[in-house]
Structure formats: C-alpha cells, structure tokens
From TrEMBL, chain A:
CDD domains: ABC_NikE_OppD_transporters. Gene3D superfamilies: P-loop containing nucleotide triphosphate hydrolases (3.40.50.300). Pfam families: ABC_tran, oligo_HPY. Belongs to the ABC transporter superfamily. Residues 22-271 form the ABC transporter domain. GO terms for biological process: peptide transport; transmembrane transport. This is Peptide/nickel transport system ATP-binding protein. GO terms for molecular function: ATP binding; ATP hydrolysis activity. It comes from Phytomonospora endophytica. The lineage of its organism: Bacteria, Bacillati, Actinomycetota, Actinomycetes, Micromonosporales. Keywords: ATP-binding, Nucleotide-binding, Transport. InterPro entries: AAA+_ATPase, ABC_transp_ATP-bind, ABC_transporter-like_ATP-bd, ABC_transporter-like_CS, Oligopep_ABC_C, P-loop_NTPase.
Automatic annotation (TrEMBL), chain B:
This is Peptide/nickel transport system ATP-binding protein. Belongs to the ABC transporter superfamily. PANTHER family: DIPEPTIDE TRANSPORT ATP-BINDING PROTEIN DPPD, OLIGOPEPTIDE TRANSPORT ATP-BINDING PROTEIN APPD. Keywords: ATP-binding, Cell membrane, Membrane, Nucleotide-binding, Transport. One of its GO terms (molecular function) is ATP binding. GO terms for biological process: peptide transport. Its main location: membrane. Gene3D superfamilies: P-loop containing nucleotide triphosphate hydrolases (3.40.50.300).
Amino acid sequence: MTQTDAAAIPEQRAADARGPIMKVSKLTKHFPVRAGLLATKQNVRAVDGLEFEVGRGEALGLVGESGCGKTTTGRMLVRLLKPTAGEIVFDGKDITHLKGGSLRSLRQELQIIFQDPYSSLNPRHTVGAIVGMPLKVNKINPPGGVKKRVQELLELVGLNPEHYNRFPHEFSGGQRQRIGIARALALNPKMIIADEPVSALDVSIQAQVINLLRELQRELDLSFVFIAHDLSVVRHFCDRIAVMYLGKIVEVGDRVQIYEKPSHPYTKALLSAVPDVSKIGDKATGRIRLEGDVPTPINPPSGCRFRTRCWKATEKCATEEPPLVTTSTGATAACHYPETY
Amino acid sequence: MSTVTTGTPYLEVEDLKVHFKTEDGIVKAVDGVSFSVERGKTLGIVGESGSGKSVTSLTLLGLHNMRATTVTGRASVGGTDVVAAPHSTVQKMRGKDMAMIFQDPLTALHPYYSIGRQIVEAYRIHHKVSKEVALKRAVEMLDRVGIPEPQRRVKQYPHEFSGGMRQRAMIAMALVNDPDLIIADEPTTALDVTVQAQILDLLGDLQKEFNSAIIMITHDLGVITQIADDVLVMYGGRAVEKGTVEQVLRKPHHPYTWGLLNSVPSLHGDASEDLKPIPGNPPSLLNVPSGCAFHPRCAHAMLGGDGPCAKIRPELEVVQGLKNHTVACHLSEAVRATISDEVIEKVDA
Ligand SMILES: Nc1ncnc2c1ncn2[C@@H]1O[C@H](COP(=O)(O)OP(=O)(O)OP(=O)(O)O)[C@@H](O)[C@H]1O
Ligand SMILES: Nc1ncnc2c1ncn2[C@@H]1O[C@H](COP(=O)(O)OP(=O)(O)OP(=O)(O)O)[C@@H](O)[C@H]1O
Ligand code: SF4
Ligand code: SF4
Ligand SMILES: [Mg+2]
Ligand SMILES: [Mg+2]
C-alpha cells in the first residue's frame, strides 16, 4: 500500500503525467424495450453520450434525478454492463471492449460498492470468506496468507479483525457497509465506483462511513466516482460534481461552482429542493418547483432535454441542443442561458 | 375539507413492548414506547438503525409472526386496539384504516406481477369495482406520485423501473385506498431531492384532503423539519426525546439528539472538515446497556462515583415546564440547555 502524504496529493494530481485515471467519451447505453399499442421495439436512452474525466486521487460526484442514468453509468464504468456506444479509458487503457481474462484483471483495479449493505453480502458466508473471496477468485496469495490480509483489511475499515468468523447478520448496517468496502479494497484497486454507498444508512453511521472513505482516499490515493442523491453528502465527499439529467450531463463543476453558483437551471432547482435542518417553519420557501414530469428517456424532448420543465426555456431551447461549455463561474454547463453571478 | 378535531388522537400507543424470542435470547426491540398522532398531524420518528422504528410500525399493522413475538401495551387505531384485536380484524383494517409505505420497495412489490396488477388488487380489496375502473385508478395514482407516462408504465414489471420509480410505485399502491393513518417507513431514502419534495407534497396534499394522520420514519432530519409537527427520538427500543419539531430540533435536550444533529453534513460551511459521527455502535438489544442505554457512547455520561448513568434508567420528564417536550436524561436541565444552544449554533453555522 502506498502511503502518500495527504498534503502532496493535489500538486501531484495536477502534474500527474499519467493523465486522468478515467476518461469517458460519448458513453451511451440504450435498452431495447417493447412499448406502445403495436409493441414496436424502441430504445430507452438511459445514458446518452456522457463525457467526463476523473483525476487520480479525485472523487467525482454523480448526482441527478431518479432514473437519469446514474446506476447504468456506474455499471458500465466497471463493465458489468456493456455500453451501446462510446469509450471508457481507464488508467490509459481502453476498457470498453475487454473480455474474459483481461476483464477479470480489470476488476482488480476497478471495484464497485453497491447501495444496499443488506442484500449485497451473502448471509451464509462468514465475513472472512466474503472479504477474502476476491483474493480466492483471482487466485492471489498475499504475503502472510489470505487470512492475514483479510484481517488487515478489516482493521483498515475499522472492524475488529477477530470478527473474521462472524456472519453478516451479526453486524449493524454501517458495519455491513464497511464489510462491503473491505471486500472492494481486497485487491488494492486504484479506483472505486460507489453507487449510493450511504443512502441506506442513518446519519451517524453515514458520517462514519464517509469519514472512512475520505481517510482511505487520502491514505491509498484512491479515485472515486461517487453516485448519490443526497447533495450534502456529495458536497462533503467530492472534489468535483457532475449533474445528470435524463441520460446527459448538464453541468460539471467544483464544490463552489455547483453549490454556491450553479450555472444550469436544473442544478439550481435541485439544490433548492434540499430540505435544510436549520430551517424549520419556512417549509420549502425558496424551493423551485419543477413543473411537469420527468420526460421519458424513450422519447426525450428535442433540443435541451430540460426544456419541458425549465422556466427559462425559449424557442431556441427546443431546436438547438446546448453544448457543454465553460460558463462565467468556470464550470461547464449545457444551457443556452446559464445563470450569471 | 373540514378538519375534525375529536379530541382523541386517531392513533394512541401506550407502553408498547415488542419482544422477539430468538436462539440467542430475548430481543427487546421495542421496550415501552408511548406516543399519539391526531388526524391531520404528522409525527416524525427518528433514531439509529435498529432502534425499533420499523418494528413499532409493523406491530401497528399486525405484521409479526406472533409465535415468536410478544406484544404488550395498547395501540388504538381509530378506536380499535390492534394489540388486543383478533388478527382478522387488523387484517381488514390494513389499506384503508392504516397503510404502510415500506422502507424497501422490493419487499412490497411482487417481481412476477405488473405494477398495475398489484395496485389494482390492492384497490379492489376495499372497493367493489371492475378491473377497468381499478386500472384507471392505478394510472391516476402512478401519475400522482410523479411516474411519467403512467399509461405505459402501469403495464411494466418492477425490474423495469429504476430504484426511485419502484419506490414511487409502492407509495402509489399504499395510498390507493386513501388511508386514515399513513405509516411511511423511510419513504424517500431512495429518492432524489426533487422527487422527494414531490412525494412530501403529495403526502401533505392527501393529508389535507383526507385529514389523515401520518407517521414519518426517517433518518433525514431535513425531511422531518419539512413535514412533521412532532418528533419522537428513539434509541435502543425506547423514546429518549419527544416534542414538537421546533422543540426537538431547535432546542434539543438529549445527548443522542445532539449527536444526530452533529452528524448531518451541511450544505454550507467547511466541507473539508471531517463529519462528527456518534462514536461506537448501536447497542445490542439482547443485552441493552444498564442504566441509560446510551451511556457507553455518551460524551456527557456521569459514570464514576455516584454517577447515575450506568445505574439508573432515566425516564421521560418534561423540559422547562413545557408539558409536550420530554426527555430521558440524567443531566441537569441547566447543563442541557447550555449544550443545546452550542449544538444549534454549530448546525446553523
Ligand atoms: N434493464 C433495463 N431495461 C430497461 N430499462 C432500464 C433497464 N435498466 C434501467 N432502465 C431504465 O434506464 C433509466 C435509468 O435507470 P438507472 O437505474 O440508471 O437510473 P438511476 O439514475 O440510477 O436512478 P435511481 O436514482 O432511481 O437509482 C430508467 O429510465 C430505467 O427505467
Ligand atoms: N423478527 C425478528 N426477530 C428478532 N429480532 C428482530 C426481528 N425483527 C427485528 N428485530 C430486531 O429488532 C431491532 C429493531 O429493528 P427495527 O427494524 O425496528 O430497526 P429500525 O429502527 O427500523 O432500524 P433501521 O433504521 O435500520 O431500519 C433490531 O435489532 C432488529 O435486529
Ligand atoms: S437550454 Fe434552455 S431549456 Fe435548457 S436549461 Fe438552458 S434555458 Fe433551460
Ligand atoms: S442519562 Fe447520562 S448517559 Fe444517558 S444521555 Fe443522559 S448524560 Fe448521557
Ligand atoms: Mg440508481
Ligand atoms: Mg427500519
């Protein structure tokens, strides 16, 4: 394990000649479905041409409305789902079409943590067997043996190594999520895709897990794509945030750009909907109520996909798709009339 | 829309205990909890994972395997004590007198039946109507919970929905009979904020329209702030603090409530600081810590010498003469008031 001085990371990251850990271009996933009276084949355009990069040691947040394609994206990034089109370059290698053995070795470097700490662990296996499984599957015999390595991992995520022989049901939700994290770390990955890793946890345990992920990020120089719908959690964990709407990225920016000065109207609406503990009584004041439904990804609106719910939409928004461009805040956003500050 | 205030709450729970017999011993999942909810009001229940929130609500619906479960106390739903009533009575009340929105949509939705069929069946239990009429109702409900293209979606199966859409479909199913008491167990945990806001609005609208009583179980204190009138904070199967939202979240008096408020990541402030979780893990309900169940994790515990925290179990007592704000903690009121102010100052920062 590489122990990096936390303070040195940003500089190293900027100057890293190896380039970004992940670069995604035109990433697309269409699910064929039958729909309508004539049961004609149509496509759910779940993810439609994503472009983004993740720097080494960086945590990129992926947020957006339910059904906008976050999970589909996450599953493509680790190649649990085959992209319909586009390219995923991981650590300099094109992994879009990997198969068989090379796909298996990719799993060593690129791991996924799932949302649900309850159903993602086999109830009949001991914690030792669960965390050691990736080593067994990949026939890796670490120095000192599998058991020693597993115990190190348990310790790393703040679990008692003596709990090696216990079963998942003997652990709390937060502890189970730690077991899932230990398993993801077993093969020393360079990058982790975390799909709603703390949504099922209560606030206190959630805080424990976030602190743990931050510590691992600092100590192991891990990179993350962090999918979550809780915007305050994302703000806490992620350096940069990509906002998705209906299969597309509408804005990418750093913490300040996204949270203090959102450029895209959708980002602004999303932020205004976060309930704030410090604001009792003024229920939902300042909240932008999005009119209408989320359009269907089978037949998304022409031009800007957000236009059916956007209060700023004009004729142009229906005819021209806005490209992702740099805005006045320095973020990139896909909007003809971005917010100005 | 007349708001009928009959004086007696629609739901009254008194000294409810739910104990499970397990191989390892007796799990005291709920151990003497009392609360009430009037029609038109919303009670928020917060508390750590495993503190007995879901067990409390499942008990109201009579959803436990009674052979392994001992339930005592009283829980009156619209005048019927569901603890004492025969199982068949409670079963008939489900859906209309009370309905539950579950934490996990996959446990409530059957994978082999279309979403529409499941809502239709739920509707027809309480309404003698044709399938066509019930299907119209199903589409209308899907529309109300914000599912796009309900006409098409109604024919789909759960696996064809995204996580958030499944959650909304289940909410539609639970609400199809306009229940008098809605128990929502983490209904928006899987949802993003805009849909969450929509669902909270929907619950609020239904409440206004049907004057229903709502229990909202959640770990999101922001959600509580937005929709609840009163809050019950649970720890280790018991209530540790109870009061109006204003009292509990703006003038909290229990160290566990402080811990919860401190753990919440904020939308403002310094994001580079680590969060401040409550140290340690939730207590084992097989072997609840002596005295105050929170004492092994409490930064303010008085343990040495005459310290009562590990010896005497604190009971709920009124705070500063405000009869509806109660707290179970041995700390003196003055000490609690001072710390409370400090905690809130940080939350607001
Ligand atoms: N196997 C599938 N077949 C057909 N459509 C699918 C399939 N999987 C996902 N979809 C659709 O693709 C879209 C994106 O789904 P996805 O699960 O990626 O959303 P998400 O952003 O993760 O949402 P949530 O926040 O609710 O988890 C949705 O419209 C969903 O219904
Ligand atoms: N059928 C059962 N048999 C034995 N123990 C049970 C049973 N059902 C629940 N429990 C235990 O009762 C306790 C309370 O569980 P409950 O589901 O009410 O927690 P909760 O407060 O809803 O937590 P969460 O926030 O994680 O949903 C837990 O320790 C749980 O393990
Ligand atoms: S491009 Fe037009 S419709 Fe789209 S977000 Fe911008 S203003 Fe709104
Ligand atoms: S009774 Fe003691 S241990 Fe319990 S919360 Fe109060 S101070 Fe802490
Ligand atoms: Mg998802
Ligand atoms: Mg629960």
